[in-house]
Amino acid sequence: MWRSAARRSSQIRRLLSSSAPPAGAGAAVPGPCIVHKRGNDILHDPWYNKDTAFPMTERDRLGLRGLLPPRVMSFEQQYERFINSYRSLENNTRGEPDSIVALAKWRILNRLHDRNETLYYRVLIDNIKDFAPIIYTPTVGLVCENYSGLFRRPRGMYFSAKDKGEMMSMIYNWPAEKVDMIVVTDGSRILGLGDLGVQGIGIPIGKLDVYVAAAGINPQKVLPIMLDVGTNNEKLLEDKLYLGLRQPRLEGEEYLAVVDEFMEAVHARWPKAVVQFEDFQMKWAFETLQRYRNRFCMFNDDVQGTAGVALAGLLGAVRAQGRPLQDFTNQKIVVAGAGSAGIGVLNMAKQAMLRMPGIHRTGEGHNQFWVLDKDGLITKDREGLDSAVARFARGHGPDEIPDLHEGASLVEVVKKVKPHVLLGLSGVGGIFNEEVLKAMKESDSPRPAVFAMSNPTTKAECTPDDVFKHVGENAIFASGSPFGNISLGNGKTGYANQANNMYLFPGIGLGALLSGARHISDGMLQAAAECLASYITDNEIRKGILFPSVSRHITAQVGAAVVRAAVSEDLAEGCCDVGPRELASMSELETVDYVARKMWYPVYSPLVSDK
Ligand SMILES: NC(=O)C1=CN([C@@H]2O[C@H](COP(=O)(O)OP(=O)(O)OC[C@H]3O[C@@H](n4cnc5c(N)ncnc54)[C@H](O)[C@@H]3O)[C@@H](O)[C@H]2O)C=CC1
Ligand SMILES: CC(=O)C(=O)O
Ligand SMILES: [Mg+2]
């Protein structure tokens, strides 16, 4: 199954990369857009605003004459002007502390976002590699930490514990008639930065920017949401500028009542919207997923999106060793972090192992994983273990490595297990230290893999420099936040892959939306992960490249894989004018084409006033 997916995938990739305009460029010749505003109201609406690019005919028709300098600039001139000012900012801030430079870059992008969405999204799409670290991890973490001070104007919606009983009417305050994609957080575990309360709104905003750039979701139809149920962050509670509720977090039934009311309100107004849960602390991440996943079209990105990306990376590590994929079942994997992300990865990896041909279906008995949390190795001797974690606890059977006791340290575990892969989702920077990495050098794999997946950069378990220095040149490295590749001398490169759920969530959300799925099944998520895993060629894998760059090409394929899985499980109800039968009749290539054509692409539309 995996090999044929790889072949199919490369066929599709060749096809997509031979078509010159970007995926979704079907919308490149835009039809006219009816605008219900005039004059300054248009200039102050980032959706319609073209700044100096309004042609004279529109300036006359829309009451803009005299409100703009007389010279009409082209879109290309505006684009170049912005990129030039961004590059001068880079030059002028050279040598300044990283956080100052990063925030200055975020500000210049954010100002454009506030003013002119068409130009903003075009520069974002064209420069996603450069700008992702600003609008997404790591800078978005810094923005969240400083949100109350940086706040100038709201973006998205805020539902607080004080709004109980009001949400059903509040949801109608959102001006857009249609919403396709919602990303919601309660701010309780923002990246690896902990509880940031209302300031966590930066994460849904950043994730939805990635949706627009990588999945072509129309920005008029996205909605970032903060559920402010209080914060337990003492520093924020004492901060006079803090913009959220100054009360401890709601717990238990009180908490769930708020989330229930919010979900009902969203569903009542936009029954087909896809809701992505993001950065909820573990207990609520799992509880809300179980509570809503069969009732609404929703998923938890940290649990499910991350799992798919990690699985693709784990399978890549098998291929890099020159082993067949079935060998995945023999890989020894040490995971540091038994939280929402770590357990999500373990569940999906275990499911994948159990689906591999030839595996002894020993079910729960088949345990290739050694899992650690803040108290060390988790074994069956641990008291009060959560059932989600307990299935991965090491026991006392004959297969167990002697002397690996409850609470063993990371370095002890790595020394004794000699794992093929060491994967970090702990939220603790630097725990893959020199001793641990030197122990990884003795791995049973010819290509030991180290995935330091915690975000932002300061929380990465190690850096690529550390890995290539201490584990060796054959190592494979991936991190949650971006690092640069490492020159290994003799013209060789140590690849710093980015293993981040941003490779999957855009395709999962888009595929769920375009299939009109009633809910998002394990099969749809698996299809997304398999598609990503099979995207990279053997040649790339041999070099140590595990993931493609984020692009609309990869999203179109992941999205199509999700649509097809929804169809095959009879979950697809269709979207807009494309019904379930039509979806079912599409070939694989036609589905990719359909998904790509549905992507929104930013171009100035001719504006026609209705006044
Ligand atoms: N690269 C990616 O796509 C993603 C990365 N993440 C990152 O993963 C990290 C964890 O996220 P969650 O699982 O949601 O958090 P969580 O708070 O639910 O779990 C953290 C886990 O790490 C454990 N831990 C703490 N100190 C440790 C240590 N010294 N050694 C081993 N384990 C330790 C904790 O006991 C807990 O089990 C965050 O930094 C987050 O940014 C999360 C989702 C996606
Ligand atoms: C990437 C992501 O979702 C996280 O770090 O939480
Ligand atoms: Mg997250």
TrEMBL record:
Residues 113-293 form the Malic enzyme N-terminal domain. InterPro entries: Aminoacid_DH-like_N_sf, Malic_enzyme_CS, Malic_N_dom, Malic_N_dom_sf, Malic_NAD-bd, Malic_OxRdtase, NAD(P)-bd_dom_sf. One of its GO terms (cellular component) is mitochondrion. Keywords: Metal-binding, Mitochondrion, NAD, Oxidoreductase, Transit peptide. It is found in: Mitochondrion. One of its GO terms (molecular function) is malate dehydrogenase (decarboxylating) (NAD+) activity. The active site is at 136 (proton donor), 207 (proton acceptor). Divalent metal cations. Prefers magnesium or manganese. It comes from the Eukaryota. Gene3D superfamilies: Malic enzyme, N-terminal domain, NAD(P)-binding Rossmann-like Domain. Signal peptide: none annotated. SUPFAM superfamilies: Aminoacid dehydrogenase-like, N-terminal domain, NAD(P)-binding Rossmann-fold domains. A divalent metal cation binds at residues 278-279, 302. (S)-malate binds at residues 189, 455, 500. Its cofactor is Mg(2+); Mn(2+). This is Malic enzyme. It comes from Urochloa decumbens.
